[in-house]
Amino acid sequence: MENLLELYQTMGISPAVYQYGEAALQRLRRRFDKIDQIAEYNQAKVLRAMQKNKVSAACFAATTGYGYDDLGRDNLERVYADVFHTEAALVRPQITCGTHALALALSANLLPGDELLSPVGAPYDTLQEVIGIRPSPCSLAEYGVSYRQVDLLPDGAFDYENIRRAITPKTKLITIQRSKGYATRPTFSVSQIGDLIAFCKQVKPDVLIMVDNCYGEFVEALEPSDVDADMTVGSLIKNPGGGLAPIGGYIAGTKACVERCAYRLSAPGLGQEVGANLGLMPSLYQGFFLAPTVVAGAEKGAIFAANLYEPLGFRCVPNAEEDRHDIIQAVELGSEEAMIAFCQGIQAAAPVDAFATPIPSDMPGYSDKVIMAAGAFVQGSSIELSADGPIRPPYAVYFQGGLTWNHAKHGILLSLQKLVDAGLVTL
Ligand SMILES: *Cc1c(COP(=O)(O)O)cnc(C)c1O
Q: Residue 4: pLDDT above 80?
């Protein structure tokens, strides 16, 4: 039988790169133990919610048409609400992606004349057209919702002074993005988000708070909904889908907010009562059940990547030592050439489409060319091992996912190998 090193060599990973990875891993054992402990806690949270709501085979039945009295769908929403500790949740395959879920939460809860505030700098690229920062038909701006933004301080902290000034009688909703997105600012911890929410509600008690929780679910034992967010929003082809959900988004929050989101998604008066599950319930339930473990594996991959690349002189956000609040690892590679090599390594490590070669191209919703590497079972799923980034300085690649830690490790080693092979790195 060939040993692991020989097996890896047949897959393009040299002994030098493998050994370099093993040396980094030796330093990470204790951190990995801590991640496993959070996964165990979150697993228990999900399990208890499923047991409490009496999940049974009947919940997995497909429904079609209007989807009235859809037991599986309604019960899944109760499971989500229990895990997020909210009054209600909307969890639907009809929510097509994270941007859709966020656009839904915003447009359902903002009316003409209201103002939206982002106290954490510019939101994720695709939200800029939703809000109207970049003009678009059907943007909030077109409907008469104004937007204000307070940037973070140079050290990444909240600018409380200017946030206080920016909250006016018009401010209806405050949006807080947990993950860094395509920026190189730090991702916020749930506790930091809690401080910011408390501050905003002290300034204006009736203001609504929405947290873009994309990539953050199950990384900590708490979620933004545990620190008083009115709506916590994310995508099912990221963390909470556990790699099995083929589509979907969720909004967990107060009954009043979630009900409005349901009216906006279907129609006023119909709300949560309609929306057939189309046979997707088994993967939505099972994916949510697996999500805490899958997220833990992805987080280990992110930490491993930082501990491989940082010693080679590449700036990593978060850095090799920092605590994690999402599963994203940014590595500033400094050139388009290095971004391409990195992404080609991730692609070559995939179980699906490993033979494809990623190249930079234009993407709807993004203003720069973007390179994306992903060979996923669910197309575009970024809880599966994937890397992407806009082709602009500092040429940062955003690396995330991995349905298993072992696969994440393999992909990161192969990315490094491609940089070595291209002569861009010497070990
Ligand atoms: C991915 C992401 C989104 C958008 O989700 P899509 O499913 O790609 O539409 C929004 N915000 C953040 C922070 C994200 O990471």
A: yes
Based on the domain organization, do 329 and 270 belong to the same domain? no
pLDDT, the chain, mean: 96
CA 89/CA 258 separation, integer angstroms:
6
Nearest-CA residue for ligand 1 atom 2 is 214
* End-to-end CA, the chain: 29
CA distances from residue 317 to 36, 187, 350, 369, 401 in whole angstroms, order as listed: 22, 9, 24, 21, 16
- Measured torsion, CA atoms of residues 399, 401, 406, 411, in degrees rounded to the nearest 10: -30
Q: Are residues 344 and 414 in the same domain?
A: yes
Indicate if 268 and 230 belong to the same structural domain.
yes
What is the per-residue pLDDT for 60?
Answer: 98
pTM of the model as a whole: 0.96
C-alpha 69 to ligand 1 mean position (Å): 31
Is the peptide bond preceding residue 224 cis, with omega within 30 degrees of 0? no
pLDDT category at 183 given cuts 50, 70, 90 is confident
- Specify if 53 maps to a domain: no
Residues 198 and 157 in one domain: yes
State the total domains in the chain: 2
Distance 98 CA to ligand 1 centre (A): 5
148 beta partners: 117
Spatial CB neighbours of 319, under 8 Å, sequence gap ≥ 6: 306, 310
- Looking at 251, 279, 307, the residue that finishes a domain is 279
Under DSSP, is residue 342 helix (H, G, I), strand (E, B) or coil?
helix
Confidence category of residue 185, pLDDT binned at 50, 70, 90? confident
Q: Report the pLDDT averaged over residues 4-32.
A: 96
Output the residue whose Cα is nearest ligand 1's atom 12: 214
Burial of 253 (0-12, 13-18, 19+ CB in 10 A): buried
96 in a structural domain: yes
Ligand 1: atom nearest CA of 181 is 13
Percent of the chain having pLDDT more than 90? 95
Residue with the smallest CA separation from ligand 1 atom 7 is: 98
Residue 339 is part of which domain span? 4-42+289-421
CA of 236 to the centre of ligand 1 (A): 10
Confidence of residue 312 (pLDDT cuts 50, 70, 90): very high
Indicate whether 365 pLDDT > 80: no
Q: What is the pLDDT of residue 134?
A: 94
